[in-house]
Design a protein that fits this description.
Blueprint (H helix, E strand, L loop, with lengths): L1 H21 L2 E7 L5 E7 L4 H11 L8 E7 L4 E5 L5 H6 L8 E6 L5 H4 L10 E2 L10 H9 L6 E8 L8 E8 L2 E5 L10 E5 L4 E6 L2 H5 L6 E6 L5 E5 L3 H8 L1 H17 L13 E2 L6 E2 L3 H24 L8 H10 L11 H11 L5 E6 L7 E7 L2 E12 L2 E5 L6 E2 L2 H10 L10 E2 L6
Parallel strand pairs: 1-5, 16-21
Antiparallel strand pairs: 1-2, 3-4, 3-5, 4-11, 6-7, 7-8, 7-13, 8-9, 9-10, 11-12, 12-13, 14-15, 16-17, 17-18, 18-19, 19-20
Protein name: Growth factor receptor bound protein 14
Pfam family, one: BPS
Family: Belongs to the GRB7/10/14 family.
Length: 441
């Protein structure tokens, strides 16, 4: 028996070293939004999800399942999401020796929005569903129909397309089916003789255009192009939900990608900040103590917050100018360190950053106003549109407050304002849900 166990152990060791020998390490370079980069050594079989997990750990980020790896092709001004299951080395293998292509690590809150709100991707006037559903589908029915290999809703509508080698864009009636993308050469006819095949997505990648109007002369800034994986030829289109095209082809795989992190959370022994096992503590005395009375928790938290603000104010008052009020210095101390504050960011840059991180409800950032140096601007996404709200300073009895509604609701600092609108919609079209953050690798 001992000899048998010894043989099994040796076999296991041999297998381990054999696999380790076969695993070739390679160096990849990854960029962040501020164009800082970091080179890391990784196994040749590493996936996009593995890369994201690696940088989440290295940068001490909170893993909210929205971190994403992007493939960007600068000379064509296009990029695409590298799906979690994809091999990063296979992506790089298609670049060529002197390619300018690069990898970007950043948030994409819309990454799996399709599985969270599928009804948003199927406007009634653009969808033809099977007769079995009687034209009515709820959330779960839509997901099941989508994941089925035998059926899928058909999407149709008008798109602007640019034919290869031409500069002008023309409007055509397009039809998206599981078998591929088609356009009609006769009005809105769906007859087979009038439908012309454009692309099949089983062997293609879908890229979004980064500067559709500027680079491609497109009629809108929302465009995509389809690239056959083994080919360098591009067919550019605009005004279409490119994320649905990816989902249409790799539906079940993407669904598995979507549910995988949640399954890991259930089986993982690691603690989460959302667990009820966390307890309230009071550190105001000589010794720390656990707060057992629930009614005392809120008052202690408020007092700690006020104490922190007073300390920030005191620290900065010695470095600030004599004419600067304590309240304004306290405000500066608080908001400049917040991940949602982006200081001197222009309106266009704010829109670009929000667009990059996902056009879903509640994505936001706060920035300095370019037109008025004393005010700030809240940039917020709602219904796939980016809106800008001016945060106006209000002075009363020598104290400075900030308000979004002409002084009706006032806050002592921007942190308090953001925290309020994260819990209450107020005058905003939706609550603040996801902040745009920039990290340096």
């Amino acid at each position: 028996g001992e000899n048998t166990n010894y043989s099994v152990l040796n076999a296991a060791k041999a297998s381990f070293w054999f696999h380790l020998f076969l695993t070739v390490l390679q160096v990849i370079k990854v960029y962040s939004e501020d164009n800082t980069s970091r080179a890391v050594e990784v196994p040749s079989d590493i996936t996009a999800r593995d890369i994201c997990q690696l940088f989440i750990l290295k940068n001490h980020c909170i893993d909210d399942h929205s971190w994403t790896l992007f493939e960007q092709i600068p000379h064509l001004s296009i990029e695409r999401t590298i799906e979690d299951h994809e091999s990063v080395m296979e992506v790089q293998a298609g670049w060529g020796m002197d390619s300018q292509c690069c990898l970007y690590f950043r948030k994409n809150y819309a990454k799996y929005e399709f599985f969270k709100k599928p009804l948003d991707f199927f406007p009634e006037h653009m969808v033809s569903v099977s007769s079995e559903s009687n034209g009515i589908m709820n959330h779960s029915q839509l997901i099941q129909t989508f994941l089925s290999s035998s059926s899928c809703p058909e999407i149709h509508g008008f798109l602007h397309a640019k034919e290869h080698g031409r500069k002008s864009w023309k409007k055509f009636y397009f039809v998206l089916r599981r078998s591929g993308l088609y356009f009609s050469n006769k009005g809105t006819s769906k007859e087979p003789r009038h439908l012309q095949f454009i692309a099949e997505f089983g062997d293609s990648d879908v890229y979004t255009l980064l500067s559709a109007k500027k680079v491609y002369g497109a009629p809108t800034d929302y465009g995509f192009c389809v690239k056959v994986i083994q080919c360098r030829d591009f067919q550019s289109l605009s005004v279409f939900k490119s994320c649905f095209i990816n989902d249409l082809t790799y539906g079940m795989q993407l669904y598995q990608n979507f549910i995988q992190p949640y399954q890991k959370q259930k089986s993982s022994p690691m603690r989460s900040i959302s667990e009820n096992s966390l307890v309230a503590m009071d550190f105001s005395g000589h010794k720390s103590r656990v707060i057992e009375n629930p009614s005392e928790v809120l008052s202690v938290a408020v007092e700690e917050g006020l104490s922190w603000r007073r300390k920030s104010c005191h620290r900065l008052s010695s470095h600030g100018s004599p004419s600067t009020s304590q309240s304004s210095m306290s405000s500066i101390a608080i908001h400049v360190a917040q991940p949602w504050f982006h200081s001197k960011l222009s309106r266009d840059e704010a829109q670009k950053l929000i667009n990059q991180q996902g056009l879903i409800d509640g994505v936001f950032l706060v920035r300095d106003s370019q037109s008025n140096p004393r005010t700030f601007v809240l940039s917020l996404c709602h219904t796939q549109k980016i809106k800008h709200f001016q945060i106006v300073p209000v002075e009363e009895n020598g104290e400075l407050f900030y308000s979004l509604d002409d002084g009706h609701t006032r806050f002592t600092d921007l942190l308090q304002l953001v925290e309020f609108y994260q819990l209450n919609r107020g005058i905003l079209p939706c609550k603040l849900k996801h902040h745009c953050a920039r990290i340096a690798l």
